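Quick one, tokens below. Sequence please?
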């Protein structure tokens, strides 16, 4: 779900170069899009293939051109196709309607359960919260995992890094934290998978359903939303999916 053009007459450009997931787009003089704006490219290429992709502006090149990174595959994209400046960054759905659902970097549901029933969206690029809005008094966040609470307690509102090799239990630990937050604190969580294997994401989803964190019969009672940029997706999707998940949170 990207931002729709902010005006009835959006600025339109033309794709001039495609280099893998990177594309250069030329716009009229004086109408260049801002950096981090979303560009939407839709239509048919000369071979008759339907093309629909979103790219994010990363650089102003000069000569009325910008360089953008695609959020999905660029197969079939050719020079001369029209690109529309949406006038805003990529936006994703937010609110309770996202619970129990699986999204991609654009906030589009990929769980084959239909569209998300919400009109509330938020851009993935926003200003950081003011210091006056943050909790400055340190508090310990009780995870319910005794060895963590005793030896390496987490700070509430802080950041925690879990480092380890493949298959040692990082995702299992995160899953346990999400489960405890839902059951002991009555809270909700957002899981962002950056470069995860499709199999791992599917296993995680099934385990959430078995534990009751995701209520398949009534998604409004679920306690987690999932957002994935899988390892088979372009670099742009994996680069921005963390911000998409953070925005939903």
């Amino acid at each position: 779900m990207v931002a729709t053009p902010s005006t009835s007459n959006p600025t339109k450009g033309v794709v001039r170069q495609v280099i893998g997931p990177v594309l250069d787009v030329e716009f009229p003089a004086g109408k260049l899009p801002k950096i981090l704006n979303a560009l939407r490219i839709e239509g048919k290429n000369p071979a008759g293939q339907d093309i629909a992709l979103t790219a994010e502006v990363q650089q102003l090149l000069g000569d009325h051109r910008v360089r953008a990174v695609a959020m999905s595959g660029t197969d079939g994209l050719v020079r001369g196709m029209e690109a529309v400046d949406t006038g805003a960054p990529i936006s994703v759905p937010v609110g309770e309607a996202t619970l129990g659902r699986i999204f991609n970097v654009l906030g589009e549901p990929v769980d084959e359960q239909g569209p998300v029933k919400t009109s509330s969206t938020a851009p993935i690029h926003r200003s950081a919260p003011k210091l006056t809005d943050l909790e400055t008094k340190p508090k310990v966040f009780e995870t319910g995992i005794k060895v963590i609470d005793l030896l390496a307690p987490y700070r509430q509102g802080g950041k925690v890094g879990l480092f380890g090799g493949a298959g040692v239990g990082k995702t299992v630990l995160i899953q346990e934290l999400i489960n405890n937050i839902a059951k002991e604190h009555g809270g909700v969580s957002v899981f962002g998978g950056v470069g995860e294997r499709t199999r791992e994401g599917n296993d995680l989803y099934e385990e959430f359903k078995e534990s009751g964190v995701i209520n398949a019969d009534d998604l409004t009672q679920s306690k987690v939303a999932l957002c994935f940029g899988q390892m088979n997706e372009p670099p742009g999707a994996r680069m921005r999916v963390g911000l998409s998940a953070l925005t939903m949170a």
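The chain has four helices and 13 strands. The first helix runs from residue 146 to 151.
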